[in-house]
Each structure stands twice: as C-alpha cells, then as structure tokens.
Amino acid sequence: MSIPKEPRQLMINIMYLVLTALLALNVSAEVFNAFKLVDKGLVKSNTALDQANGSMPDLIAEGAKAKASLRKYADRVDPIRELSSEMSDYLANIKTTLIEESGGYVQEGPDTGELVGKKNFDVTTRLLVGEPQADGSVTGMGEEIKAKLGEFKSKVMEYIDDADKASFEGKVAVSVDDQAWQDKGKASWSHFNFDHMPVQAVLPLFTKYINDVKSTEAEALNYLSGKVGTSKEVVLDKFTVVSAPEKSYIIKGEQYKTEVFLTAFAGGDSNTKINIKVNGQSLPTDKDGKAIFKETATSLGKKTLKATASIYNPVTGKTDTYNNDFSYEVGERSGTISASKMNVFYIGVPNPVEVAIAGVNSNNIKVNMTGGSISRSGGAWVATVNSPGKAVVTASADGFTKSADFRVKRIPDPVPKLSKSRGGGMGSGEFKIQPGVFPVLENFDFDAKCDIAGYRVVRVPKRQDPQVSENPGGRFNGGTQALVKKAVPGDKYFFENIKCKCPGDGAARDLGGMVFNIK
C-alpha cells in the first residue's frame, strides 16, 4: 500500500500499526523469561546426563569380561551412544538455526545474551511447519523431526533382546504423541507443536527432545549393565522442577493446564516415589513422574503457582525436596476489524479488511458480513458491497465476538481532464494533439478504473457560428477530431454534458463540463 497523502489517512494507518504491535505484546516479558529459564534448566539436566552416561561404557566392558557370552552386550554400547550423539547433534543444529534465522543474540553468547527474535513466530512456522506441496510433502522440517525421533527409538530397540523389548519400551523417554494433535483437530504434529509459536517458546521443546534422547541412552546403558551383572546404574543427584504449560497466556474463562515434573530423573526404580504439590494441592503422578495441574481462570492479571516436588535420592539415601515458582497471565479477549485502506467500503471494488483476535490463529477465526459479502483471499479478507448504506463485519472465535460498522459509498466522482488540465488556457498545438477526455480518481487509494461514456464538444470561433460534435466514449471520434484540428488562438471549446461510468454504477453519472481558451 502506498503512503497516503492526506494527513488524516496517514494518522489512521499509523494508529493501526500501533494497535497491531500492541496485540503482538499480549505475552509479557516475564513469560518469555520463564521459557528462557526452563531451557537453561534442561540444558543443565542434559549436561548431568552426559556425565552419568559417560561412566557406563567402562563398567559394562568390565562386567562383560566375566563370560564370553556377555561380550555381545558390551559391543552394543558404542552403536547406541553414536545413535544418541547423532540425534542430539541434529536437534541442537535445529536450535542453532532457529536462533540464527531469528536474528541471533542481542549480546554474544547464549548464556548471557538476549534473543533478538524471541517473539518471532514466522521463523518457526516457516522452518518447522512450512507449506504443503503438490506431491503431498511439506517444506517445513517438523515432520522430518517427528520421523527421526521415531527412527531413533526403533534403532535403539534393535539392541534390546526380544524377550525384554516389551518391558524396555515402556521406559523409553523418546515418544511421539499422535493422539493429542488429532484430538485437537490440527493438520499435523508439526502444526500442533510449532505453528505460530515464538522462538523462545520452541527452544525448550528441542532441549527437552535432546533430554529424552539422552535419557533413552541412559535406559539402554542401564539395560546392558544389568545384562552383564553390574550393579551400577545411571543415577542423577541433581533435580529441578519444571512446568510445561499448554499456554502461558490465557483468556478469562479458559482453563490453565500445565505439566509439572522433575527433569533429569532416570526412572526404573520401583522404590522411587515422587510427590508433587502445587499451591499445597497434592497431584497424582504417572510412571514418568509427571503430574497434571489444572485451574480455571476467573480473574484477570498475573497468577503465581508454588510447586514442590519430593523424591528419594538413592545417591544420598535421603528424601530431597525441591521448590520453584511459576506464573502465567490471564487477559481479556480482544479483537480488531479494520479496513486496510479506509474506514469506508466502496461499491464496485474489492475492499481489503484486516481481522485479528488476540491469542487466536487467524485460520480459526470465523468472519461474516451483513450489507454485502466477505471472503478470504490469501491471508486477508476482502469485502464486496453493492448499495450505499451500512455494512457490518463480525468476527468470532472461542466464544468471543467482535463487530465493526462501515459506511458504504459509491466510488467518488472522477475529474474529467484533457491532458493535465480540466479547463482554462491551452496552446493550439497542445490542444490539437489530445486523444480525448479521460477521468481521474484523485486521492482515491483503490485500484479502480472509470470510463467516459460520452460528451458534446462545441467550438466557438471569433465572429463565426458555433460548431458542434457529439462524441460517444472518451476518445475523440472523427467529427470531434476534425473540430479540434481547426483550433486557432482566440477560439473557445466547450466540453458539455460529460458522462462517466465507474465500477458498480448502474447508470452513467454527470461530471459537468470544461471550457478551454485556445492561445
């Protein structure tokens, strides 16, 4: 859209840009900081897993020396570790790509720097979701990531004895949940996890996938250790409480839902018990030590959750308790409906309309209209109107409804011109080369074309009778051309009863007349 010349329209455009920016800021800085802290905690957990896993190969090799039949288990160590390393590097490279594509760090170094594009969701959507292609494939990497996670799990399972596969599979941390995105009605696993997600929110997901890969490596090494008769297991002696909410910004009346669990926990010990509480409320945990906390938002503002997790630590022989606070924000649903060019709909031309509801993907917004019709064109909405009056556009999503009224007008009258002038003095040479009369829509932002339907030309030479030519259409016909070529200084030419038709007009409109004095 070109920059409008009128100060009023320029002000409207600037106000719209400011409103769009405010909508983008619905998620507070504290929430993005929480994502950052969660990611750092998971990175520390991964480091602890690497240290613990690194001590296992020597123990397994030592235990396999007891019998020749046990050597096969020691031979499986390196392939499993290579699978884990390759998969971890693959996921880490995707994290690096997301950071670089979104602008990197404000200051150098991931430990101290702030992400330039932490709120950028275009990068995650483009790289991880992408667009569907004619052959059924997609340009994003999300489905490839999903396939590689499944492939990693399958390859690790190949190193487990057939008799033990069923029991071992239940301990594998790497898993791809197809039920959740299908229940939500999403197009794919990629859409469910990455579509329009800010970069800062996606990074902890990949760190968690890396954590799952390393935890699966730990389970496999524990399995091999048990096969060769060693009593040493991967036991982590540092823990932290993690909250993984479905959404960190919700609307009044919605339900807040989050997973609360201990990261860096190596399961498999039936004597290990985890107790989790949130705001004093005890929560049941699953086999992975995860608990689900839910509460319905009844008031606006920031809400703080105090989480406590207690676990028996086999390294120290004591029950350790860990505490952490989490927060989320409750906001009021808001929406905007505005014409992209003006706050008026014009008959005969497509009228672009911007529609947005805070916290709702544009694909999930329903839009309808009275006083005309509205349809989607690419990523925008286009309104069509047929008669002057009023039109109402209504947008709705998740029980929220927003309406906006628009005036409906005809396209304004164009200005008839000959050359660059609509009357006055004109040299005879310039006058004679004109091809006809054409209409100009001045200060009108829409791409509309009006046509001259016809007019009358009257030549009034000095001391002679007037000469008349009726001209249908905008270009000079033969009679008008002959009359124009007679022009000499002192003549007057009257262009009378100029008629014009614009898009949406049922009948031609009168544009008045023009008078030219030949010099």
Concise summary:
The chain is α+β, with helices and mostly antiparallel strands. It contains 13 helices and 24 strands. The protein folds into 4 domains: 24-232; 235-332, Immunoglobulins (Immunoglobulin-like, Sandwich), CATH 2.60.40; 334-409, Sandwich (Immunoglobulin-like), CATH 2.60.40.1080; 415-518, no CATH class.
Describe the structure.
The chain is of the alpha+beta class. The chain folds into four domains: 209 residues; 98 residues, Immunoglobulin-like (Sandwich), CATH 2.60.40.10; 76 residues, Immunoglobulin-like, CATH 2.60.40; 104 residues, no CATH class. 32% of the residues lie in helices and 29% in strands. It is built from 13 helices and 24 strands. The strands form six sheets. Strands 18, 20, 21, 22, 23 and 24 form a six-stranded mixed beta sheet that branches. β13 and β14 form a beta hairpin. α2 packs parallel to α11, α3 runs parallel beside α11 and α5 runs antiparallel to α7. It is elongated, with a radius of gyration of 36 Å. The two termini are 41 Å apart. The relative contact order is 0.09.
